[in-house]
Design a protein that fits this description.
The complex is a heterodimer of chains A (376) and B (370). Chain A is α/β, with parallel strands linked by helices. Chain A folds into two domains: 4-12 and 256-375, Aspartate Aminotransferase, domain 1; 16-255, Aspartate Aminotransferase, domain 2 (3-Layer(aba) Sandwich). Helix content of chain A is 39%, strand content 13%. In chain A, strands 2-8-7-6-5-3-4 form a seven-stranded mixed β-sheet, with helices on both faces. In chain A, helix 6 (159-166) links the parallel strand 5 and strand 6. In chain A, helix 2 runs parallel beside helix 7 (240-255), helix 3 (71-86) packs parallel to helix 4 (101-112) and helix 8 (257-277) packs parallel to helix 12. In chain B, strand 13 and strand 14 (313-319) form a beta hairpin. Chain B folds into three domains: 4-127 and 169-184, Rossmann fold (3-Layer(aba) Sandwich), CATH 3.40.50; 215-271, SH3 type barrels (Roll); 278-369, Translation factors (Elongation Factor Tu (Ef-tu), domain 3). Chain B is built from seven helices and 18 strands. The longest helix of chain B is centred in the N-terminal third of the chain and has 20 residues, at 99-118. Chain B is an alpha+beta fold. The chains are: A alpha/beta (376), B alpha+beta (370). Chain A: InterPro entries: Aminotrans_V_dom, Aminotrans_V_PyrdxlP_BS, Cysteine_dSase, PyrdxlP-dep_Trfase, PyrdxlP-dep_Trfase_major, PyrdxlP-dep_Trfase_small. Chain A: It catalyses: (sulfur carrier)-H + L-cysteine = (sulfur carrier)-SH + L-alanine. Chain A: Residues 4-364 form the Aminotransferase class V domain.
Chain lengths: 376, 370
Amino acid sequence: MTRIYLDHAATSPMAEEVIEVYTAEMKEVFGNPSSIHQTGRKARKKVDDARTILAKSIGAHETEITITSGGTEADNYAVFGTAYARKNEGKHIITTQIEHHAVLHACEQLEKDGFEVTYLPVDKNGLISINDLKNSLREDTILVSVMYANNEVGVIQPIVEIGELLKDHPAYFHTDAVQAYGSLSIDVITSHIDLLSVSSHKINGPKGIGFLYQRKGILLKPIFYGGQQERKKRAGTENVPAIVAFAKAVQLKQATFTNGNVEYNQLKQVFLSELERLKVPFQVNGSQESVLPHVLNISIPNTDVETFLVQLDLAGIDASSGSACTAGSIDPSHVLVAMYGESTPELRNSVRFSFGLNNTEEQVLEAANKISKIVL
Amino acid sequence: MKKIEDTRVVVGMSGGVDSSVAAYLLKEQGYDVIGIFMKNWDDTDEFGMCTATEDYEDVIKVCNQIGIPYYAVNFEKQYWDKVFTYFLEEYKAGRTPNPDVMCNKEIKFKAFLEHALALGADYLATGHYAQVEVRDGQTRMLRGRDNNKDQTYFLNQLNQEQLEKVMFPIGHLEKKKVREIALEQGLATATKKDSTGICFIGERNFKEFLSQYLPAQQGAMETMDGKVMGQHDGLMYYTIGQRHGLGIGGSGDPWFVIGKDLDRNVLLVGQNINNDALFSTSLTATDLSFTTTLEKPQSFKATAKFRYRQEDIGVFVELIDNNRVRVIFDEPVRAITPGQAVVFYQGDECLGGATIDEVFKDGLKLDYVG
């Protein structure tokens, strides 16, 4: 049975061109970019070139890019790095209830360490209110972390407005753009973003690599200590082949930016119309206006997610829901709890489908048909 | 009749060797096997460690070795409502509950069975030491072949509808053989220690665990004729016939728990393992359940177990109504404990069981037992 992969928001397959570059680099470039010899210099050039591509993709300068092991490290670096660098200026942090756990759990850890965290609520569409943010801001607020777009429901937050609000406030503005990057056009300058996290494996690049944009002048306390890499911001020998392959994935995304978004949104619409045609009852979770083109979260009445996801898997469809909890069972999604409250059926019957590279119209039609057989 | 390869079997996998081998044997026979781990209890500590996580890791390894898909399902809420609440209520009432019996009845062979059927399963299999066999159109539950491991005592509340959907793939094997198969196949759980005790308490101290949920009230330990022998830590910590943990020193025969006086919060104790007050001759039991739907005579002869791993005793069973029975023993039995199960057998077949309620000696109710 050929599987239908509709979980690109979890992770995405590597593009052919990326695999080619990745393997070529593994064969050809093994030097340590910090070495003073030619083999090292060759590797260093590869990293520098890649860094320029990464920087340009968000309108930044290459000195503002710190390469990390992925989105989680970038988020942790932004949150802990700000907290520990600025703890004498203030101990108040604002974030949202729907952040990725890489931000949420980092903030919870900081609370244990004496910091105070405000978790902004969202409305039933999954959007925060600028007024809430305004009212939560204090003199001692040192960081505001609001994700660019949510990974579970795809809802895009009003980043430009937040940037506008914060540009005259001393708090750093961090945004976790892991899910948004590659689907949205991001400009850190016009959006007044100070810190921005990106991961490679969501955009058809390799796993284990990502970056944190850190506006010039923003000082963070490092979380890794050792060598002088990344201008002492992040010690550890660079993963050169992954960095180069990541940059290749970014270039591919940029080349197909408009087409890709149209195509994935088209797949989403075909999928939804087919479900409607087959009379599968469903409701879309989260805003329909401000949403990533490739992410779809739907609630199907009278299904139970723990059963439904297994049925989908056995039928050859890869999809997901919330986040896997301890011991493989499924916890209610904190995002849906924030949107709908503690006790609504959506917590137990919502599933995320996310579209991407190599998906076809035939696949989403087949998936919709299999779903109707399971549900009806 | 479905072909074997079209017959889907969900195996309840605990991360132990028994369910691992059960899954392996079914896969070998050619069934469409799916492994599912049940998470019923959360004991995550401050470092994020949780017994369930470690067990699930083992399930993943074994399923990948066997080549079957694996999933997990969360029944924490159902377990809390149906098993743990009952467990606490029984202790509050001065009885000694059997959460394993309740877990099998309400979770494994009810909520979990329903989950399996929803996934298109034809059968639910577990690593229990018990057997099923169809005789005269009824699915009979038979004792496990390994007499020392037989688990029908815990399965006594299963009914015909449940048994028709159940497989016990290792029930015909000795435990030793199960370990051998696991070793031969190099299964990740081959040398894993058997779990002991009640699943949610695990290796932890029972007293300490219970005290988190039920307030303990200290009181006196007295002999049957009222002589104070010491202090007890809370009646719920003691069970009928218990010897250890009384702390009554001195010379002479060891001391045993004879009963409880809930009204006065007094633990009744007596000397000698065969103290006369520990023996009874009949009981009544509730929650009566039979494994088959065959019409039951008003009274019948059988053998019975009153606790796990006890030798069978000859009994005469009289139905009081649909839910209650009177059980008269062929000979006096020691330390019958309210809250535990009485389970009936005829030969190899487990007929069903009930929960021990009241205990009698020569027709007189032993109030001190509960």
